[in-house]
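[User]
Um, tokens okay?
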Amino acid sequence: MSKVEVIMPKLGMTMKKGTVLEWKKKEGDRVKKDEVLAVVESEKITSDLTAPQDGVLVKILHAEGDEVPVGETIAIIEAEG
């Protein structure tokens, strides 16, 4: 099994960091590709962050309320297959 990083997306041209508003999944949960993992927010927009592939959410690296730079890993999924 391989590990897949879930990164803070760039939601706008000038976005440099985002805030994790809410985790919809918890460590140990099975996730499907495109299933909502968390809700993230920039200065101008709120967006759902989805799983990049099927697997198990093995580690959440940033808690709700954390500000995270764009491109930084916020969680790790252990991919299936």
Observations:
- Residues 3-79 form a domain with the OB fold (Dihydrolipoamide Acetyltransferase, E2P) fold (CATH 2.40.50.100).
- The chain is about 0% helix and 50% strand.
